[in-house]
Amino acid sequence: MIDRLRKDLINLMRIPGLSGHEDRVRHAIADLLMAEGVESRSDRMGNLITTFEGEANCPSVMLFTHMDQLGFIVRKIEDNGLIRVERLGGVPERALASQAVTLCVGTGKDVDGVLYNKSHHATAPDEKYQVLKAGDVLIDTGHGSRDAVEAAGVRIGTPGVFRPNVLPLAENRIAGTSVDDRAGCAVLLEVARRLKSLENGPTVHLVFSVQEEFNLRGAVVAAQSLKPDMAIQVDLMLATDTPEMADRGDMLLGGGPGISLYSFHGRGTLNGVIPHPSLVRLMEETAENESIPLQRSAQVGALTDLSYVQLVGEGVASIDVGFPMRYSHSSLEVCDLNDLEALSRLLIAALQRIDAGFPLTRDGQA
Question: Could you confirm whether domain 71-125+133-162 is CATH 2.40.30.40?
Answer without folding.
Answer: yes
